[in-house]
Design brief:
mainly alpha; 0% strand
Length: 332
């Protein structure tokens, strides 16, 4: 017993030393990484700022022309920027994806499918039934909600300010919008996975275990307001944003929601592996960026899969399912 106690006392300082060494290495790596990231962002933002400044006069002139055209009827400009433009981008992108899903054209796109063998082609009857909910949510909830928010947005800050936001302010706004969206979506989404709320509300969205682009709007109306709309609109309200920032953010939010549900890991687009895995397994990957999933440990199963290895920005044309294939299935 005395020998064991002595060895334990000797082992304890060694463990503390290893932990302390590990902490120092982690701090060094994180500190170095942060410095490199700041240097990289300063370099990139500097180049983009010069491009922004070069085109700034043109953008400012076009904005002032719009203000003079819609003078006294600025609400029309608001409808165009916050509803019509984002909706046009959403349906243009999803129109192309629906052709791929229903007609399987072009042929090469099937190589980028995440869940092989699913939606090849998509069930058209199921899609038609889902479209009713999608159009209802967009036309009867999203549009009225954005219109309802108009006086609130005007109170928070004049969205028609004559001067356009600077490039760095625009980037700051996008960062804040993204952070607010991540926090609100993660916690509202995870709450909807409570057994009671899941059965009554969220189960509808998970009818599609292999999602397609338009399914981002296939939700119960309560979920559409709580998880789809509020996380997106709250940022511009709190920041008192310019109409140009709001229009870009709403458009980006719709495109990113489409990409995360599209079912294809396409080149030069954000990876949809994270949210696609959520539709496949239900109890993993609740967020958008994955930051809160990492902090709360709701991505541990995902990190043990090949999907996690493929969860990266594809910079070439070789599908990641080919360069990082799933392990062969075991024979019974």
């Amino acid at each position: 017993m005395k020998g064991e106690a002595g060895s334990m006392r000797q082992e304890k300082p060694k463990q503390e030393e290893r932990i302390w060494g590990s902490m120092k290495r982690t701090a060094f790596i994180l500190g170095s990484g942060l410095l490199l990231l700041v240097a990289f962002l300063n370099s990139v933002s500097g180049q983009l700022q010069r491009f922004w400044d070069a085109s700034g006069c043109f953008q400012q002139a076009q904005w002032e022309r719009l203000l003079s055209t819609f003078e006294g009827k600025e609400w029309i400009l608001y409808i165009i920027a916050t509803i019509l433009v984002p909706a046009l981008l959403f349906w243009s992108f999803n129109g192309l994806l629906l052709v791929a899903d229903t007609a399987r054209k072009p042929n090469f796109i099937s190589r980028y499918r995440i869940q092989v063998g699913q939606n090849e082609p998509v069930d058209t009857m199921k899609l038609r039934q889902s479209m009713r909910t999608i159009l209802f949510n967009q036309c009867m909830i999203s549009v009225p909600m954005v219109i309802f928010l108009y006086p609130i947005i005007k109170v928070r800050g004049d969205p028609y300010r004559r001067e356009l936001p600077t490039f760095h302010w625009f980037l700051l706004e996008l960062a804040i919008f993204t952070l607010i969206n991540e926090v609100l979506f993660y916690y509202s989404h995870r709450l909807l996975h409570h057994p009671t709320l899941y059965k009554k509300i969220h189960k509808k969205h998970h009818e599609w275990t292999a999602p397609i682009g338009v399914i981002s709007f296939y939700t119960h109306p309560i979920e559409h307001v709580a998880s789809n709309m509020l996380p997106v609109v709250l940022g511009p309200i709190l920041m008192g944003s310019h109409l140009s920032s709001i229009a870009v953010w709403f458009s980006l939010a719709l495109i990113c929601a489409t990409v995360s549900h599209c079912g294809y890991h396409l080149p030069f687009l954000p990876s949809p592996e994270f949210h696609d895995y959520h539709h496949l397994r239900f109890n993993q990957c609740y967020g958008v960026l994955g930051v809160l999933d990492h902090l709360h440990g709701t991505d541990t199963m995902f990190k043990q899969t090949k999907a996690y290895e493929r969860h990266r920005f594809l910079l070439g044309f070789t599908p990641l399912s080919e360069s990082i294939p799933d392990p062969p299935k075991k024979m019974d």
